[in-house]
Design goal:
This protein has 308 residues and is of the alpha+beta class. The protein folds into two domains: 5-128, 2-Layer Sandwich (Ribosomal Protein S5, domain 2); 131-305, 2-Layer Sandwich (lpxc deacetylase, domain 1). It is built from six helices and 21 strands. A hairpin with a 7-residue loop joins strand 14 and strand 15 (171-177). The chain starts with a strand and ends with a strand.
C-alpha cells in the first residue's frame, strides 16, 4: 500500500506458536515504534546484544527460511511470513520482541498475522515514507534460477514462475501487482514441500515443528492435507509471499517489476545485495502530501537522490 507518511501500530499485538524448523514454542510481541526506527527484532531471552535489524545485510542463512543475525551472533529465523504481513499491511516501524530463536510458523502463511494486525489501527508518523524506485533494469542468473527487476510506474509487480517435475505443482505462474490486487490469495498461501524431501530436511536438523497444520505436503500426485489447497496457485503464490517478506529487508517499499524463475530466499537475498551494489539502478523517492489514486502519477513524485 503506497502512502505518504510512515506508519506504525497503535498498540502491542502478541502471537505465540511453534517454530517450523526449531520445533520450539515461542511468543512474540509487535510494539509500536517511532519514525525511521524500521523493523527491529529483540531477543528478550538474551540479556545483552539482543537487537537484530531486519536488513538484507544481516541475513546469515537463507536455507529453507530467512535467518537474521547481528554482529554478536544473536539470531532470529523464519522471519519472512511476518515481514510479508507488515509489508502488505503497510507497517514501516515496529519493535518485535521474541523469546526464542524462531518466529512461530502459525498456519504456514501470513494469514494469522494479517488478520490480527489488521484489527489494530495504524498510526501516521511525522516522517514521510521513502520508496526505492528502480530506474534501470538489473538481472541475476544463478544456474537455472533467474531474477530481474525493471522500472515500473507506481508499484511492486511480481511475475513469478515455478517449474517442478511433480505433477501437482508442475509449471505454475502468477503475476501480482501489490498496489492494485486483492492480496488474500497471496497471504493465505502456505509453505509447501514434497513428502519425499521430508527426511532429507529433517537430517539437516530442520522442520522439527512441521506438520499438516502449517505446511502443504505433496506425495506424488496428491495433496496430503485433508482440506486440500486454498487456491489453485497456492504454490507460486506462497513464493510471491516469501519474496515480499524478503524484499522488506531492503528497508524500503520497492517500486519496480520483478520477474523471477525458480527463485527462493537465497536468490532474493543475493539479488538485493546486487541491487544495492548498483547505485545507478535505483533512486529514493517520497510521495507528495496529497490525495492520490491507486495508480500514482509519476510526475507527482518527488525524487530525493538518484545515486543515494
Amino acid at each position: 500500500m503506497n502512502t505518504v507518511y510512515q506508519k506504525t501500530l497503535s498498540k502491542k499485538i502478541s502471537f505465540k506458536g511453534v517454530g517450523l524448523h526449531s520445533g520450539k514454542n515461542s511468543e512474540l510481541n509487535i510494539l509500536p515504534a517511532e519514525a525511521n526506527h524500521g523493523i527491529i527484532f529483540k531477543r528478550i531471552d538474551l540479556k545483552s546484544n539482543n537487537l537484530i535489524e531486519a536488513n538484507f545485510s544481516n541475513v546469515s542463512s537463507a536455507k529453507l527460511c530467512t535467518t537474521l543475525e547481528n554482529n554478536q551472533g544473536a539470531k532470529v529465523s523464519t522471519v519472512e511470513h511476518l515481514l510479508a504481513a507488515l509489508y502488505i499491511i503497510g507497517v514501516d516501524n515496529a519493535l518485535i520482541e521474541i523469546n526464542n530463536e524462531e518466529v512461530p510458523i502459525m498456519d504456514g502463511s501470513s494469514k494469522n498475522f494479517i488478520e490480527k494486525i489488521s484489527k489494530n489501527n495504524l498510526i501516521d508518523l511525522a516522517k514521510k515514507r521513502r520508496y526505492l524506485k528502480i530506474i534501470n533494469e538489473l538481472e541475476l542468473i544463478d544456474g537455472e534460477r533467474k531474477i530481474s527487476i525493471e522500472p515500473n510506474n507506481s508499484s511492486l509487480e511480481v511475475d513469478f514462475q515455478l517449474n517442478y517435475k511433480n505433477k501437482i505443482i508442475g509449471k505454475q505462474k502468477n503475476v501480482v501487482d501489490f498496489q492494485k490486487e486483492n492480496l488474500e490469495e497471496i497471504y493465505c498461501s502456505r509453505t509447501f514441500c514434497l513428502f519425499e524431501d521430508i527426511e532429507k530436511i529433517k537430517k539437516l536438523g530442520l522442520a522439527k515443528g512441521g506438520s499438516l497444520d502449517n505446511a502443504v505436503v505433496i506425495d506424488n500426485d496428491k495433496v496430503l492435507n485433508p482440506e486440500g489447497l486454498r487456491n489453485k496457485k497456492e504454490f507460486v503464490n506462497h513464493k510471491i509471499l516469501d519474496l515480499a517478506g524478503d524484499f522488506l529487508l531492503s528497508g524500503y517499499r520497492i517500486i519496480g517489476k520483478v520477474l523471477c524463475h525458480q527463485g527462493g530466499h537465497e536468490l532474493t537475498n543475493m539479488f538485493l545485495r546486487k541491487v544495492f551494489n548498483n547505485k545507478t539502478a535505483f533512486c529514493f523517492i517520497e510521495l507528495e502530501d496529497f490525495k492520490f489514486s491507486k495508480r500514482l502519477d509519476s510526475e507527482k513524485i518527488t525524487k530525493l537522490a538518484v545515486n543515494a
